[in-house]
Amino acid sequence: MFRILARPRRFNRTGGGYLIANSINNSWLSTNPKRHVEISTDANKAHNSQFVPVIKMIKSWNKAHGSFFRSFHIEVLALEIFHGVRIDDFPSGVRFFFDKARSAVRTQNKDPAGYGDDIGRYITQGTVDDATKRFESAYGIAVNAEIMANRGEIRGAVENWRKLMPYHFPAYG
After folding, report:
1. Is the N or C terminus of the chain more exposed, i.e. has fewer CB atoms within 10 Å?
2. The whole model's pTM is what?
3. What separation in angstroms does the CA of 33 have from each of 1, 37, 54, 113, 164?
4. Distance, CA of 93 to CA of 103 (rounded, Å)
5. Where in the chain are the domains?
6. Cα→Cα distances 29→41, 67, 98, 125, Å
7. What is the model's pLDDT at position 24?
């Protein structure tokens, strides 16, 4: 037996984009998926094609640790965090994200397409400390992995990266 799931209702929005029904809080959300793709593509170009892979790694971490954060929220945080800086490599990029996300998650994270919604609105006063602690823990592990890699302790570095992103890192040796 299977169910056919209906697509969410969406309507063209004056000025571009769409209005989609949000059944969680019984409201309408403005969105423009094409504009979001353009923004991510531009950011990826600005970061020598390292922006999207870093986001994928962070989403992998999120999935491996309970999917606390919404996928789009991670993208918006990354756009904010990496604005005006350069991603030199994946380890430092992931570490930098977790470092800055500890405070960025406590602020409003505006829709990059300009619709004004706080993408992190689902994180409440009651859950913001948990969100911060999750980024804090990930930051500590990322720092350890980076230090070990810089010392040439590859096995230890991979074990730490595996703690963060088990879907991206197989067991070492």
Report:
1. N
2. 0.86
3. 33, 6, 20, 9, 29
4. 16
5. 33-164
6. 23, 22, 28, 22
7. 62
pLDDT per residue over 110-162, tens digit each? 989 887 678 888 899 999 999 999 999 999 999 999 999 999 999 999 999 99
- Nearest one of 49, 41, 113 to 76, comparing CA atoms: 113
pLDDT tens for each residue of 4-32? 445 556 667 777 777 766 666 676 767 77
Please state the separation of Cα 94 from the chain's center in Å.
10
- Picking from 45, 35, 18, 65, the residue whose alpha carbon sits closest to that of residue 165 is 65
Residue tagged 């984009």 (tokens): 17
Contact 96, 18 (CB under 8 A): no
- Residue ranges of the alpha helices (H) in 13-153? 33-46, 51-64, 71-81, 90-104, 128-150
Count of CB atoms situated within 10 Å of the CB of 121: 11
Q: Which two tokens stand for residue 168?
A: 């991206």
Nearest to 86 by CA among 44, 56, 58: 44
Are 62 and 74 in contact by the 8 Å Cβ rule? The answer is yes
